[in-house]
Amino acid sequence: MRIATWNINSVRTRAQRAVDLLVRHDIDVLTLQETKVADDKFPRGIFEEAGYHVACHGLNQWNGVAIVSRTEPEDIRTSFPGQPGFAKAADKPQDLEARALGARIAGIDVWSLYVPNGRELTDRHYTYKLQFLYALAAYAESNAKSKLLLTGDFNIAPEDRDVWDMDVFRGKTHVSEPERAAFQRLQEAGLEEVTRRFTEEARYTYFDYKGFRFQKGEGMRIDFQLASAPLASTVTGAQVDLAERAGEKTSDHVPLIADFAVADFDSVR
Questions:
Q1: Predicted pLDDT of residue 262
Q2: What's the chain's Rg over C-alpha atoms?
Q3: Is 153 a catalytic residue?
Q4: Among the options 114, 128, 139, 206, which is catalytic?
Q5: Which parts of 54-203 fold into alpha helices (H)?
Q6: Could you say which protein family the record assigns here (predicted)?
Q7: Is 114 noted as a catalytic residue in this protein?
Q8: CA 23 and chain centroid, separation
């Protein structure tokens, strides 16, 4: 079973690229983040014509998550227990954003997640980010014995080697100790980062559009697939698709792909 995650940075702009990705890698499940579209405008047709089912959660032109899969997703959820909301003004209702989408696919609880960016260390969005991550860890811990997969853009570089130059990032979000501690909490909750050991040479999953970062190899590893123990034990390989990032008008993120030896999955394809 091949599962990929990709912050697509506008699904309407890159729907054909996503379909090409599905075909090129023979992907069974593709989780998307930052789709930037309300559900009624999601380009379902192009995916359905390619033989895939679509579950999506988008409220407006910001955020947005989706799951595209060969088999029909079941038990679709648009938030996880304890997920916090956010509004820029503290005195406004802190409504849930379109940052989480879960579905059961072939016995696996798959989540597409777009973790808040955090913006600045002094911003309320940073506190929101930490709250989001710790609530997610609580959910993971309560489901650690099941086949659980959290995929997506976590907006954290957990280790110094996950950025091209720590001196550039020091004192900023994505590499702060509280963020890294929150990411570690996910692992303490029973999740394993299953792609790292296969992707050390081509490790970065994000390259800023500015400064020719991709051409210089100056990136960040901030997209992950985190699996519970029963699922992590089935991982046989992983890769990042740098060729996609080299294409024209592509996302600033790289698709991250993992293979799982899931029993009897072929029978449901």
A1: 81
A2: 17
A3: yes
A4: 114
A5: 124-142, 166-169, 177-188
A6: Belongs to the DNA repair enzymes AP/ExoA family.
A7: yes
A8: 20
209 is catalytic: no
Per-residue pLDDT of the chain (269 residues; tens, 9 = 90+): 999 999 999 999 999 999 999 999 999 999 999 999 999 999 999 999 999 999 999 999 899 999 999 999 999 999 999 999 999 999 999 999 999 999 999 999 999 999 999 999 999 999 999 999 999 999 999 999 999 999 999 999 999 999 999 999 999 999 999 999 999 999 999 999 999 999 999 999 999 999 999 999 999 999 999 999 999 999 999 999 999 999 999 999 999 999 999 865 554 45
- Residues 225, 195: Cα–Cα separation, whole Å: 7
Residue 269 is assigned to a structural domain of this protein: no
Tally of structural domains, the chain: 1
35 in any annotated domain: yes
DSSP summary character for residue 72: P
Known binding residues are: 7, 34, 153, 155, 252-253
Tracing tokens 């969005």 back to the chain, one arrives at 125
171, amino acid identity: G
Q: One-letter amino acid identity for 63? A: N
Residues of the binding site for Mg(2+): 7, 34, 153, 155, 252-253
For 240, the domain range is 2-264
Residue 25 counted as domain residue: yes
Residue 267: per-residue pLDDT = 45
Q: Tell me which of 28, 153, 162, 241 is the catalytic residue.
A: 153
Catalytic residue selected from 109, 241, 253, 259? 253
Backbone CA torsion sign across 232, 183, 108, 139: positive
Does residue 64 belong to any structural domain of this protein? yes
On whether the CB atoms of residues 189 and 140 are closer than 8 A, the answer is: yes
Report the distance separating Cα 41 and Cα 191, nearest Å. 34
